[in-house]
Amino acid sequence: MRLSQFFLPILKENPREAEIVSHRLMLRAGMIRQQGQGSFSWLPLGKLVLDKVCRIIREEQNRAGALEILMPTIQSADLWRESGRYDDYGKEMLRIKDRQDRDMLYGPTNEEVVTEIVRAYVKSYKDLPLNLYHIQWKFRDEVRPRFGVMRSREFLMKDAYSFDLDFEGAKAAYNRMFVSYLRTFTRMGLQAIPMRADTGPIGGDLSHEFIILADTGESQVYCDREYLSLQVPGEKTDFGNDVEIADIVKTWTTPYAATDEMHDEAAWDKLGEADRVSARGIEVGHIFHFGDKYSKPMGAKVTGPDGKDHFVSGGSYGIGPSRLVAAIIEASHDDNGIIWPEAVAPFDIGLINMKVGDADCDRVCGELYSAFTGAGKDVLYDDTDQRPGGKFATADLIGLPWQVIVGPRGVAAGEIEIKNRRTGERETLPVTEARKRFGAIA
Ligand code: ATP
Ligand code: MG
Questions:
Q1: Is the pLDDT of residue 168 over 70?
Q2: Would you say the CB of residue 151 lies under 6 angstroms from ligand 1?
Q3: Any idea which ligand is nearest the CA of 219?
Q4: In CATH, what number does 347-437 get?
Q5: pLDDT tens digits, one per residue of 340-362
Q6: Is residue 57 in contact with ligand 1, taking CB distance under 6 Å?
Q7: C-alpha span between 109 and 93 (Å, rounded)
Q8: Cα gap 375→74, rounded to integer Å
């Protein structure tokens, strides 16, 4: 992509409304545009990152055996009356009437809709286990939307719903999502810690929030330092092996970790001073077992191996991709701007032409651009007539992992410069070496 043809509305000044660094940087880097209270448009740079985040989520959901679907945003109130939640759900739910005066709502979550699907088609235990997920916009009329996309009213959510014959099966499904989440967040360059969360009237210990430690987080959290060095399960993890998966969950739930609501002072006191991490955290995911909470009132049942009817046992598993984009920035930035982890970077390389119009600079940039893109790299080529200082500032602000800098003096010597955004390290290389560095053999 040529920057001259891209839409990157950079802000020079710090926007006053932004209280936290991710919000500030997302506005400054032209990633989002606020449309209304707690609602944002995603501009090209932001959309690229959001898509990469969703792709990782998708890959890990699929790997764990979940199947992607897409359910509507607007739902019928009648369905929610069946589960009993229409009246229970508070003011966060946006209630709407259609032209026939029917009660509708903008989905804050999808348990009812997905349970209706399962009720309609799934009749036997042989059709289970089943895990259906989608990535869809949600609306919650939050009391205090703030911090940009971190807590907005309209936001993207990946929500998965598992269905099993019994608690055993539901627990195995829960564990698969648990492990899938560990992999998902790590791939985004984040260290997420699963913390015991409140299960409310459902009871049991099958609810975890996945928390990123960050000073700007809205929750107070407590955990054992051991979490910071636990090994995240690799690509070869066998999601078909319930025992292997349960072992991983055990490893990741044994050291102490809890959010404020679940904090247990007695257990905490037993930890040595040096092992205690008391910090602020951002909730990026939440998994929850709820058994027959929806299947029973809505009549979603299957015939079991015993020939009898069983209400399916369910759980739901949420991740906030739009919040994650902000969380990644909170975890990875410096004074000059964003530092994208490679896996979610909007482009891999920022190619900077320091003197557009100079025949040699233009030629070398053109050659490198085709070579890098040919090698499968996403390149943002700064071919604008801005001055070098401005180009460097933009490149640092938007945080692409690598900058490849082509200037007239270097080119005359057959050399260019590459800069690693994270370490700030710069290296001068012959052009052919630079091509090799990014897999583009001359
Ligand atoms: P919170 O406690 O932050 O309000 P929640 O517990 O209500 O979140 P869940 O219902 O568990 O959220 O939703 C699943 C995920 O969706 C959350 O882990 C979070 O990543 C994301 N999410 C929830 N609310 C918002 C919001 N207002 N803006 C952006 N993302 C959100
Ligand atoms: Mg939650």
A1: yes
A2: yes
A3: 1
A4: 3.40.50.800
A5: 999 999 999 999 999 999 999 99
A6: no
A7: 10
A8: 43
**Ligand 2 (single-atom ion) residues, CB below 5 Å:** 286
Q: How confident is the model at residue 442 (pLDDT cuts 50, 70, 90)?
A: low
Q: Which two tokens stand for residue 408?
A: 């007239």
- The one-letter amino acid code at 412 reads A
Ligand nearest to the CA of 323: 1
Please give the Cα distance from 219 to 222 (Å, whole number): 10
Domain ranges for the chain: 3-338, 347-437
Confidence at residue 421, expressed as pLDDT on a 0 to 100 scale: 98
Q: What is the pLDDT of residue 245?
A: 98
Q: Each residue of 194-212: pLDDT tens digit?
A: 999 988 777 777 999 999 9
Query: Hey, what CATH topology would domain 3-338 get?
Result: BirA Bifunctional Protein; domain 2 (3.30.930)
pLDDT number for residue 200: 77
Whether the CB of 197 sits within 6 Å of ligand 1: no
Burial 99-127 (b: 16+ CB within 10 A, else e): eeeeebbbbbbbbbbbbbbbbeebeebee
The 10s digit of each residue's pLDDT in 312-332 is: 999 999 999 999 999 999 999
Mean pLDDT of 288-313: 97
Ligand nearest, relative to CA of residue 218: 1
295 lines ligand 1 (CB under 6 A): no
Locate 334 and state its tokens.
């410096």
Of 106, 288, 323, the one to substitute when testing ligand 1's pocket (max ligand atoms within 8 A of C-beta) is 323
Any idea which residue has 């005359």 for tokens?
Answer: 412
The token pair at 436 is: 């090799």
- Would you state the pLDDT for residue 316? 97
Residue 114's nearest CA partner among 82, 84, 51, 71 is: 71
